[in-house]
From TrEMBL:
Residues 6-27 form the C2H2-type domain. InterPro entries: Znf_C2H2_type (IPR013087). Residues 46-55 have a biased composition (Basic and acidic residues). It comes from Natrinema saccharevitans. This is C2H2-type domain-containing protein. Residues 41-64 are annotated as: Disordered.
């Protein structure tokens, strides 16, 4: 197993430099950012989907 594949389109590349050139040529930076954000969002989607109805969480009364 000598080859690698682009994480975005599975295009094979030989080394880090090959991947970098491929990303710069075949993929826009915005596309890479979007992909990374989508991956991150997919991972943290459940956490963000939790109950945000913490209305009754009132702060403790000040000791006056
Ligand atoms: Zn690619």
């Amino acid at each position: 197993m000598t080859g690698h594949n682009c994480p975005l389109c599975a295009e094979p590349y030989d080394d880090r430099n090959g991947l970098r050139v491929h990303l710069e040529v075949e993929h826009r930076k915005s596309e890479i950012v979007t992909t990374l954000i989508d991956l991150n969002a997919a991972g943290s989607d459940r956490a963000a989907d939790g109950d945000r109805t913490t209305v009754g969480d009132e702060p403790p009364a000040p000791p006056v």
